[in-house]
Amino acid sequence: MEIVRKDTDLLIIGGGAAGCYAAVEAKTQSPSLRCLIVEKAHIDRSGCLAMGLNAINAYINPGESPESYLNYVKQDFMGVVREDLVLSIARGLNDTVKKVEEWGLPIEKRPDGSYKPRGRRGVRVLGERLKPILAEAVRKHRVEVLNRVAVTNLIKQEDRIVGAFGLGIRDGNLYVIRAKALIVCTGGASGLHKPPNPGSGRHLMWYCPWNVGTGYAIGLRAGAEMTSFENRFIALRVKDVQAPTGTLALGAGAKQINARGEPYLEKYHKDSPVRESSTYFRLLSAVLENQAGRGPCYLDLSHIDAQTLRQFKVDLLNMSPAMLLMLAGREIGDYRFEIAGSEPYVVGGHGEAGYWVDVERRTTLKGLYAAGDVAGGAPKKYVSGCWVEGQIATRSALQEITPGSLPSIDEDLIKKEQSRTEMPLKRRDGLSPQEAEEWLQKIMDEYAGGLSTRYELNEEKLLMGRTLLKDLKSNVPYLKAENYHELVACMEVVDRIDVARTVVEHLLYRKETRWPCSQSRLDYPQRDDAHWLKFVNSVMDVDTAEIKILEKGLHGQD
After folding, report:
1. Quick check: is 31 in a domain?
2. CA distance to 128, 132, 242, 244, 312, per residue, from 319 (Å)
3. Of 314, 341, 368, which residue is a domain's last?
4. Distance between CA 171 and CA 37 in Å, rounded?
5. Average per-residue pLDDT for the chain
6. For the whole model, what pTM was predicted?
7. Do residues 430 and 508 both lie within one domain?
8. DSSP letter at 153?
9. 303 or 410: whose pLDDT is higher?
């Protein structure tokens, strides 16, 4: 394993929506700035935007305002949101969307030239090539990119983050990158729980399977404060193809029905603990119908006319071609599609798990910022909100980057990381990364509210999950790899274990049910605003890896 050293002014970890926008913003504001993106895959088609997008789900349409957007988010997340973060996102949504349109994103228009809305807070786009458009903007602004390098840890000296380590996926080199400021933009975490499909189909899931929570894990191990990991995200999707149900419901007017053909949402309105239009309500209703023996549940498009069907197919081409193939295999009029909840994910763009940040997107570690899916406290930001956060974090970081040399890195730190990352290659016997991943997913599925338990949680199972995860973590030194690909997989499963341990600690601490399915406690089934209208935060001890829980008020106070 060779050591490759690189220096930069601004290091952006992750080349997804937030990372690409942040890099372009940096070079726009300061053309002479040295800016480097480190991306595990390739920025042309990486992350959760790889297949494209058919709508921008966060936009202030006429009649809406940043304040009404905040109210919508607060209602959906039952009061526990950082209002300052959500408002700062809402105020920047339209400008960032306009900017990406200038880069080449086709946005559907009305005859008068205004954007064609999708629902109250979204606009329709032809976004199959959204990721290549973002990548091309990065290249035009002469941002340096390290593709196929997986970040393994942050470099912390004294009380400041001064760089990051990376592992070359194809060359096996250890990259030692020094920087004056860093922005984490890596995306959330999939693969913590057992996925719906086994074996070679295990990566057929809603969220990008290569977003394994590395952005969270490197912050956890460096001692950053995190928030809301109990607020898991569970997607209601067309079964097997994982197509977005919003495209069917909002774009094509599909209705949710049970196996008997009965619409069922209305029957749950009266006693629902959540707002009827929320994602939690649609998911919870489907779960309850299945529990009552009236499943499976469907989205029904049997009423669709020819023009709407044609538009629906265009939407699928821009985001979910597998769903289009499923549609093509049906007889005319056979347009009932089974829906089901996904396994839980940890993601700060749809949910609100992530780094605890201030309004400038500073984390609690000096020199480190967070944007996009890894930034906590501000849910429903979606892709346009990630762009806004990338912009905010960059502008804040630029104010703190000063002329001068970079600090030297302690050589002992480098040797320690080199030994840690290359050790699995030296081991002939032990635990393969796939075996470790399956072990992790079985624990999380059975004891931390996975698919097999209908997302339900209770104290005793969570305590057992904590014990089993501790046992799994003790086996990390026995991971083995036969090549660089497996070596990266070893690093990924280590990251997932650290994130999963944090999730379990948060789920144990919040003793109420605030977000049905996402955080459903059988032993504490009621929402309890008197005691739990607050954030659950945590910090991992950098020496012992023990996780300490902190409580924070809605406005960030202790």
Report:
1. no
2. 6, 14, 11, 9, 11
3. 341
4. 18
5. 93
6. 0.94
7. yes
8. E
9. 410
Among the candidates 306, 326, 341, a domain finishes at 341
Binning the chain into helix, strand and coil, the percentages to the nearest 5 are 40, 20, 40
SS (H, E, C) 177-233: EEEEEEEECCCCECCCCCCCCCHHHCCCCCCCCCCECHHHHHHHHHCCCEECCCCCE
- Domain containing residue 492: 411-536+548-552
**Is residue 119 over pLDDT 90?**
no
Pairing status of strand 144-147 against strand 174-184 = unpaired
Query: Does the pLDDT at position 551 exceed 70?
Result: yes
Residue 558 lies in a domain: no
Cα→Cα distances 50→40, 131, 203, Å: 13, 6, 14
Do β-strands 123-124 and 243-244 pair in parallel, antiparallel, or remain unpaired?
unpaired
Instruction: Please tell me the distance from the alpha carbon of residue 401 to that of residue 394, in angstroms, as a whole number.
Output: 10
pLDDT at 296 over 90: yes
Residue 330 included in any domain: yes
Structure tokens at 110: 């009305």
Residues 217 and 494: their CA atoms lie apart, in Å, by: 9
Q: CB-based burial of residue 93 (10 Å sphere; 0-12 exposed, 13-18 middle, 19+ buried)?
A: buried
Spell out a b/e string for 298-333, using b for 16 or more CB atoms within 10 Å of the CB, else e.
bbbbeebeeeeeeebeebbebbbeebbebbeeeeee
In angstroms, what CA-CA distances link 470 with 335, 465, 467, 479?
47, 9, 5, 15
DSSP code of residue 362: B
Q: Is 443 exposed, middle or buried (0-12, 13-18, 19+ CB in 10 A)?
A: buried
Of residues 332 and 166, which shows the higher confidence score? 166
**52 is written with which tokens?**
């494209």
User: Do 515 and 417 belong together in one domain?
Assistant: yes
> How would residue 328 be classed by pLDDT, with cut points 50, 70 and 90?
confident
Q: Tell me which amino acid residue 464 is.
A: M
Q: Are 164 and 177 in contact (CB under 8 A)?
A: yes
pLDDT of residue 276: 57
Dump pLDDT digits (tens) for 270-282. Answer: 666 666 557 788 8
Number of domains in the chain: 2
Q: What angle do CA 347, 353, 359 make, to 5 degrees?
A: 115
Contact between residue 37 and residue 12 where contact means Cβ atoms under 8 Å apart: yes
